Amino acid sequence: MAFTLWILSLILSSLTSSAFCATPRRPVDVPFGRNYVPTWAFDHIKSFNGGSEIQLLLDQYTGTGFQSKGSYLFGHFSMNIKMVPGDSAGTVTAFYLSSQNAEHDEIDFEFLGNRTGEPYILQTNVFTGGQGDREQRIFLWFDPTKAYHRYSVLWNMYQIVFFVDNIPIRVFKNSKNLGVKFPFNQPMKIYNSLWNADDWATRGGLEKTNWSKAPFIAGYKSFHIDGCEASVEAKFCATQGKRWWDQRQFRDLDAAQWRRIKWVRKKFTIYNYCTDRKRFPQVPPECKRDRDI
């Protein structure tokens, strides 16, 4: 009997270990309330389908947002979002990770609204040690107001990768050997928001928000978090080799992913701080990596 139980224990241990380290076939989505809470303007958040889908509303009085209950140090995070349709000039729909300290780290998806008929712009940014100014902007290859699309972040000790529908659009490598800070010891919460930024969001602030079109509505669903949960004070999360997103194959993009990201850069890039010699006469150190320019 003891031998049988020992064999069963080994089998279960093996299965658990394999499942723990394996790459998931698809993100595990849970209802909104499992991992998230409203951040402000609770009356501007509407819930549907048993909490599996919510809408954020923006009007001339306020925007709104929500945040994760926990803080995370490394992981894979994603959200399905449907952007504000029609005339959304001046609005920003955001999905981002941010630490809570003064010299904060941050990983940003920001979707900049447009006048009717113009394409949405996706801006990404990375803050390390309180320093940002690493904006990249692209057009999307689809209309993000017509249907939900998945936006994801993979963050480990080696790289931060931004994905749109599983297509990598940007990678920020750990370049500490070049003197560049990398987020590794400040846990981050996940934030989502809809707000007015007509002083800069559309054509540098030339296009103002048309409040006669309010309320502006963005939809969110498929709330996925797979990260190492930690306290805000945590300085380290021992995940190396223990989670699927921490395995060797996720330390760099594979050949197919590099081809995809080059396709995005060639076809859809509007702005890349790495090539902006007016703002940065000296090439930022992290941009000197051949693949990241």
Automatic annotation (TrEMBL):
Superkingdom of this protein's organism: Eukaryota
Name assigned to this protein: Uncharacterized protein
Provenance organism: Trifolium pratense (Red clover)
